[in-house]
Amino acid sequence: MRVWLKCSATATRFGAEFWIQRYDWYALSRLRSFLKYSGNEAARDGDNHALQNAPGIPELLVASKACSCSRDLEIARKIHTQACDGSNIYLATSLVDMFAKCRSMIDACAVFDRMPCHNVVSWTALVLGYVEIGKNAVALEVFTRIAAPDALSFVAALVACANLATAASDDGHQLNQDKLQFLETGMALHSRALQAGYDESIVSLANTLISMYAKCGSLVDARMVFDRAPQHTVVSWNALIAGYVENGEEELGLELFWWMVQQHQHCLPDSRTLVAALTAFTSLVSKEDGVKVDGKLVKLKGMEQAMAIHSQAVRTGQDKQVYVASSIINLYAKCGSMVDAILAFYRMETRDVVSWTSLILGYGESGEGELGLELFRQMQAQGCYPDARTYVAVLRACGDCADRDENVTQVDGKLVKITSLEKAFPLHCQASRDGFLDNVFVATSLVDVYAKCGSLLDARMVFDRMQYHSPVSWNALILGYAENGDAEVALDIFSRMRAQDGCEANDSRAFVAALIACGSLVALELGKVVHGEVLRLGLETDTYVANCLVDFYSRCASMASAHRVFESISSSSRNLVTWSALMCGYSRRGKTDMVFSLFEMLKNEGHRADGITFLALLTACSHAGLVERGKRYFQEILSSQETKPSAQHYDCMVDLLGRANYLDEAVLLVKSMPYKPNVVTWNAVLGACRKWKNVELGRLAFNTLVELNEKQASTYLTMASIYGSVGMWEEQAKILSMKRLARPWKEPGVSCWTDHHGVVHRFRAGDCSHAQSEAVGIKLKQLLVRMKEGGYVAQLSSISCNVSDCQKEEALCEHSERLAIACALINTAPGAVIRIVKNLRVCDDCHQATAVISAIERRRIICRDSSRFHVFEGGKCSCGDFW
Question: Tens digits of per-residue pLDDT, 242-261?
Fold first, then answer.
């Protein structure tokens, strides 16, 4: 027969008739499938000839069994036609089974209903048929009509119960009502099976019971059945291990896996066992804190485990199985070792879309998005077509490119990453062409990518066209607006999501997005409301949410609340993100002693400081002018084996030296740093030159910045300010003339105050568009009179233009932060704390004026600018006038 199948050119009518005459029905089925695949219609004629001459019941029984294997409904119906009236119970039962295997329950029920009597085999065939087509509830109902079910009947019913439990919605690691209901049903079936004399000694029944209990979430019962079973096959091991993994008990699942490997050499793990173990490893690795190795974040403990299980797969010969190899690739990628992932990929004999997707996703998540995009192109060039998961992976890689893209262009007043958009658009078009935009995961990934590119118009367009909005898609849009400076829109969408999905929506990521938006607006009261919802829903134990709460309160300068949340997190749950969030908060507040104290506590608890931790330390030193201490921390980074200093660390060190008037040393560091100095680096130098009126080094920084980006208006304005501060008006005029010729983009200064209703009051310099602009103007005039009576003298050097002193003073009074403060003063009760946020650095005069206002109004005024917090109280600022 094998020789015959290989010779398709000679598979003629004669050959078909030859096999039909021999009544080799299994061979006929194989031959027919082969000929049909090769386009030879001789097989069809052969079937007709065979069925017309088919003898009695024995041959029909053989034919129905063969057809059950091939699952060919067309042949099944022809066999049925030859079966006469179906009075023979054995033949009728075989026909029911045949139609059930062919997934035609209408035909199966028709045969079943015409049977003169029914036995347990025919009933069980019907139950298994309904399980096969996914009608598990109907299968259980049919099972209840069996008078005396046998072991196979119980197996069929238990499979239906397990399938229903799998399909039931799951709220995490706890059983919901549906699963409890199916668990009760499964336990009743188990009890009835025991009463009928069928126990765990029947291997198929024991294996099915283990799987059912595991899928219903009752691992205790699953383990009891497993322990009572006299014989353990690889199927029973797989059912229990997978059960632990699927129910969030990855460590117990892995413990069982290694027990199986070490203590039961007669029962070797198969591909399913290894995939379950690899899934458990991948889940545990995602919770591990990584360390920097050659600039890459690597999970060292996870790497050891990955190599151990990879070796086990090689020993058992399973490493070349497609799903096992794909899982190994995914695990290495999650560990941060793309070298091992790519080696595993190229060792595969055949590569499918799953393995390609795993590697693309790994590059996207490891910060090598460009390689992920290139791999996507190679995949298609080799004839492997992407599926929905592939598009999610490649869009993740595209999002990583957007995260690292510094090529920002202003479009309609918004900062957009054009280069990244040019990568996203073709992927969007291809996904649309392939029909994957209706997939909620692909659409959500597009929303996320467009938001990261700064194109919220495209993100909103994709979102609005989605037929169904998952919590993840809502979160992607909310987070996109929050991170692109549209925090009030983000909060509005958050409110819409809550109203639409109901107040019981408990996706932690939605609250994280809302807290980020509140933090960017310094909207403390509104954030407290969100915190209350988090507590009501019991989400405060989620480490991600808890870390975000610490960060939110830190960004609102409410360090007491931030520290309380920090203390509420168990020491085992605190990670480097938790510590860094609190340290950054104290650093922005200028509480350097607390930053250093937390750093020592962090080390005492066994944590290794990462790049973000050291960045908080250097920032604290910079704001406090602690040059020598900053140098010691920087040297610690340079000598560290785990942490490689990044460009940000160098930029922070340059800023530290510049603020403290170590300008020559700062420039030497810039010239010696292993990274190419960028706009941020030279801006730090130029800003320090303005502070210390250093014209010579200011020129150097200015010329370099113009070469890097001539379209940045702040470069010209800062240099003009330097010249203006020393009276070099001709040079200032030349700089301003260069600015006019370059036509650069200037980020407008914007200050915001959020009232207790969550309404954001946004102001720009000289803004008259606010509904209370007249009242705000009157308040500012009243304040100016009282301020001058108290000895306030405007620092006219804050205005670099060569205009009259009167015009300079008038312009200073209309700065955005003063408008926001005045609005807050007239809309809040006396003594209430005022919190405002400004997107740029507070000018010297506004800093002095706010301090005076805090004394006059007896208010605590908290202002967060682009670099730190300023807490004004009693006429003084927490920064000590050093910022």
Answer: 999 988 888 899 899 988 88
Alpha carbon separation from 106 to 21, 52, 102, 143, 483 (Å, rounded): 31, 25, 11, 18, 56
Task: Evaluate whether residue 716 is within a structural domain.
Answer: no
Q: Which residues contact 136 (CB under 8 A, 6 or more apart)?
A: 130, 160, 161, 163, 164, 167
Comparing CA positions, the residue from 95, 207, 96 lying closest to residue 151 is 207
First to last CA, the chain: 87
Rg for the chain, CA atoms, rounded: 36
Q: Answer yes or no: do 277 and 255 share one domain.
A: no
H-helix segments, 556-607: 559-568, 576-588, 592-604
Shared-domain flag, residues 302 and 245: no
Residue 19 belongs to some domain of the structure = no
Number of domains in the chain: 3
Same domain? 863 vs 818 = yes
pLDDT tens-digit series, residues 719-766: 998 998 888 989 999 998 999 888 887 778 899 999 988 889 999 988
Half-sphere exposure of 643 (CA within 13 A, CB side): 22
Prediction pTM value: 0.71
SS3 string of 24-78? CHHHHHHHHHHHHHHCCCHHHHHHHHHHHCCCCHHHHHHHHHHHHHHCCHHHHHH
Cβ atoms of 326 and 384 closer than 8 Å: no
Question: Which residues sit opposite 864 in a β-bridge?
Answer: 837, 869
Q: In whole angstroms, what is the distance from residue 111 CA to residue 99 CA? A: 9
Cα 40-41-45 angle, rounded to 5 deg: 135
- Residues 301, 245, single domain; the answer is no
- Clarify whether residues 833 and 802 are in a common domain: yes
Do 279 and 239 reside in the same domain of the chain? no
- Angle ∠(646,397,466) on CA atoms, nearest 5: 130
| Mean of pLDDT values over 160-174 | 68
